[in-house]
Structure formats: structure tokens, C-alpha cells
Amino acid sequence: MSIEAAGDTAPTRRRLRLSGTAWVGASIVAFWIAMAIGGPWLAPYDRGTLVSDNIFDPIGSQFLLGTDYLGRDMLSRLLAGARTTLGLAGVGTALAILIGAPLGMLAAVIGGWVDMALSRAVDALLSIPTLLFGLVIVAAIGSYIPVLLLAAALAYAPGHFRLARALSMDMNVMDFVEVARARGESTWWIARQEILPNIVMPLLTDIGLRFVFVLLFMSGLSFLGLGVQPPDADWGAMVRENLSGLSYGYAAALVPATALASLTIGINLVIDSLSARTGRNISRGGA
Amino acid sequence: MRWSIDGAHDVIRLIAGRLGLGAVTFLVVTLIVFAGTQLLPGDVAQQVLGPSATQATLAALRHTLGLDQAPYVRYLSWLGRLLTGNLGVSLVNGLPNSELIGPRLLHTLLLAGATAVFSVPFALVVGAAAAMLRDSLFDRVVTIVTLCVVSVPEFFLATVLVLIFAVKLGWVPAISYITEFHSVGQLLRSLALPVVSLSCVVVAQMARMTRAAILNVMNSPYIEMAILKGVPRRRIILRHALSNVIGPIANVVALNLAYLVGGVIIVETIFAYPGIAKLTVDAVSTRDMPLLEACAMIFCSAYLLFVLLADLFAIVSNPRLRHPK
């Protein structure tokens, strides 16, 4: 302990440098959130209207970001897509944590066969590549928005389950929980009053990374043509519809792809500097 | 760390336990895939015969397909066929799924194999170099670049690569023509973009994890002891660190190969690569459930296998896992 505390000046420098990249990341994220909220008012055209006689007008022509494969304004579509993309990923992430975290907490508190059964089911869900899981669900029910959200929630709830279970396990052996047990409090009461308040913060700090996973999952499905369906379009669907121009050198598909990439990079820059501060390592685990 | 016969016995028991757990997980996966592909969809008989079919023909087809049986009976007979290597028959064109999957699987194995051969050594060298030159400019550049690459979707990387190498420079085709074999050179050029797109994310992720694994060992007390004793850095890394870092790195490699299973779905689609992932996506579009089921089980088995391998490497390499409490 004392050795770490005494340490040289390197950690301090490191922290300052990282918060620089964190600022870059945070600005990108804030920008896209603002666009998702205010986009429809800023958009110069309707997202569905054909504004140009040419398809694939280049960037910087009369239309700021060019036009797409039908001659629609790319900027307007990108702004409309921001809301769809961020909104779906946000709701999907929230659903995943609302399903996964309480179950993980209960599994840890109740233990026994409940924990056993839930953990096995979660292991099995984690053994299915998430995109493949999404494909199976979509094949079975269809590409409807609620189905996509449910698929994302089910695919990513196991991650929250594991984290919540691990955190609750640590809490479970704490003295104040033992005391509550000895007092004869019910399992439900212990979970809500003693464990939950102590695991909420670590669970929330994990949300950023989970949001990126859900974002990539949703746009991946849309990119495969099995996610958001026309006339709605998230960024993944926009990449797909403009892909045909790519081999002829039309870079329209790059516009939504870059938007998505900048958002995910921005989020990861923030997470990375936060986790460097708390000494945790991020990884793309569970993808 | 004790290496008695007792210890070896513990390792074997632990490994047997993991294998058993893997088998249980596999069974639950089959349950999930079966439930998703056979219980959720509407009436398959109706789908095959169309809306104008009479009740009698529908009932007859349901009987032939075994759809009138209880779900658990259907599951058990499906599982039995699956375990004996019978992958069923495609709903759309009536061909055995194994015939449809065979050549596609070879293409995908070619793609995944080429990616692994290219990316594993590259990633290990980059990761190890970054760890050894910790906090140098090289390390910082690697850290930031790999962070960005692991963050972005595969189709972003693929789009950029196509625009640069296929459109601007014209070195390679934008779409993979690997079905007709002309020459090795042509095959390599067709494979180049899919392999590089797939490698980007894997290399970045693997390099990051390798760097972390090495630094983790380098921060351990016995390395600190060696440093304090004045052992040269090169000798510390080669003699003390390397032998303890091989296990974690093998774990990293296996995990990333498992990741390839998912990444290949996007990359095959973008390059119209005729592999099993493309077949899977097509099966979803045509709602060809038996074919989707077969493809899904192949993907899941491969994924499960790699994750299990990663687990085993972790057990063999970690004394704390070797001797669980």
C-alpha cells in the first residue's frame, strides 16, 4: 500500500494526459446527444424527400454531406438517424440492466439452486455470439422495433447479471448483511436495503461500455438488413443502403459509418480514462 | 506453489469439471436455439404450403414433419439427429443442409484461418513491444490507436479499406471472387480485404490484452524482487516473465478466435463473401429455420470450443485457479 502511495510522479502525469483525451471523448458524445435531441429542428430537409436529381452527390456540394442512393439529403437523414440510433441503444441498454442486475443480485442473495440454475442459463446465453442470437430472434419473430429491443436486452442482460452477482457476492459476506440475517430480516429486505445501495454505483459505471455493445449490436443487425426497417433508418441501415455505391467510389456509406465510429470512439475514450483512474481494464468481452 | 501428485490430481479434476460444465452449457445452448427456431415461429406447415392450403393437407404435412408431437419429443429427436451429425433438410430448396453448408464452411475456415495466421503473431509482437516500451511514444500510440480500432464497427473499417485499396488504389477487388479458382495470386487478392478488415479488430483487441497480461506479470512482487536484485531487464522478461505470461496470452488468443466467430458475420456480408455467415444471414431472410438452426449450432459449437480452450489455458497457467479454495 505505502509503496503505491509513495510512487513517483508518473501516475500524475498520466492522469492529466488521459483527461485530455477524455475531454475529446466527452465532447463527441455530448455533440451526438445534442444532435439526437435537436436534430429534427436542425435538419435542412425532410429525411424521406428526394431533394436532388442526382444520386450520390458528393460531400460539400449544394448538400453539405451529399445525397444518398436515392438522392435524399444525407445530413437530414444522419440527424434523423441519430435519434433512432442513440434512442434504440439507450432503451436496449436500460432494459438489459433492468433484467440482468436484479436477477444477478437475487441469485447471489438467495444462492442454492436458484443461483445455480440462473448462472447456468446465463453461461449458455453468453456462449451464443450476440449477433447470432439476434439473428435467431429476428428470424423467429421478425424485424420489429420491440423485438430488436428485447433481443438486445436478452443478449446483454447476462453481462449485467454476472457483474451484479459478483458485486452482491462480495456484499453478502459483509458484517452488516450478516447482522441483518441474524436479525431475521427477509431475503427481499436484505437485497433491497443492504445490498442494492452498495452496488448501484459500480453497476452504473459499467453502463458506458454496455451501451457501446448494444449500439454495435443494433447497428450490426440493421447493417445486415435485419434491424430497423425502412422508412426508419438508423446509422447501420444507412450504411447498408448506400453500400452499393461503394465499389464505384461513392463514399456516401462512409458518412453514417463515421458518425457511428466517432460516437463509439468518444464513449471509449471517456471510459478508458475513467478506468485508468480506478485501475480497471476495459475489454470487448462478451461481444 | 506445490507441484505434488496431489496438485496434478487437482488440475485434472478441475479440467474434468470444466469439460462437464462445457457439456451442460452446450445442452442449454441447443435448448435456446431449438426454442428460438422451432417453438417461436408460427406454423411452419402453413409457411411451406402457403395460405391456400386446406386443413387436411396442413395436418398431413404437420404429421410428416413431426410438428404434431409434444415439444420435448421434438427437441429430443432433433438433438439426437444433431449429435449423430444429421443437420436436417433446408426448407427452401429441399437439399440436405450438410450439402449447403459444406463448401461454405470451407470458405469461412479459409477466411478465419488466414486471419488467425496473419493477426496472432502480429498482435503478440505489437502487444509485447508496447508492454516492454511502456509509456514510450510507441506505447502511447499503440494504446490510443488500438482503443479506437476496437471501438468502431467492422463495417466502418471495411468501408474505409474498400475506398482506399479497391477504389482509390485499385490493388484488390471490392468484392471477393473466391468461388472460381484462377491462381494463388488472385485468391490472395480476393482474400486481402476481408482478412484485413477482420484482422483489424482482432489485432487491436489481442494487442491490448497481451500488453495488459504482460504488464500484469511485470507488476508482480517476484519481478519487483528481480529488479531490486539488479537482474537486467531483458533477462527479467525472457526468464521470469515470459514463462508466466504464456498461459494468459494463450487465453487471450483463444478468446479472440472466439470473437472471430461473430465478426465474420458482418465482414462476409460486406464483401459478399460466400461463407457460412452469409448463408446464415440468407437463411434468416428466407426464414429457412432448419438451415438457420444448423448454421447457428456450428457457430455456437465453435464459439463454445474456443471459450472452453481459453478457460483451460487459464486454469493451467494460474496457480490460484489450479488450487481453488
Quickly describe the structure:
With 287 residues, chain A is mostly helical. In chain A, 72% of the residues lie in helices and 0% in strands. Chain A has a single domain, classed as MetI-like fold.
Based on the model shown, name its key terms.
heterodimer; A: 287 residues; mainly alpha; MetI-like fold; 0% strand; disordered N terminus; disordered C terminus; B: 325 residues; 13 helices; flat
Overall morphology of chain B: flat
Rg from alpha-carbon coordinates of chain B: 24 Å
Find the count of extended strands of chain B (DSSP E, 2+ residues): 0
Task: Please report which band the strand proportion of chain B falls in: under 5%, 5-15%, 15-25%, 25-35%, 35-45% or over 45%.
Answer: under 5%
Low-confidence stretches of chain A: 1-16, 279-287
* Approximate helicity band of chain B: over 70%
Query: Helices and strands of chain B, in N-to-C order?
Result: HHHHHHHHHHHHH
Q: Look at the helices and sheets of chain A and give the structural class.
A: mainly alpha
How does CATH name the architecture of chain A?
Orthogonal Bundle
User: What is the CATH fold-level name of chain A?
Assistant: MetI-like fold
Chain oligomer state: heterodimer
Distance between the termini of chain A: 35 Å
Please summarize the sheet with the most strands of chain A: none
Q: Main sheet of chain B? A: none
Helix- and strand-based class of chain B?
A: mainly alpha
Relative strand content of chain A = under 5%
Shape of chain A: elongated
**Total helix count of chain B?**
13
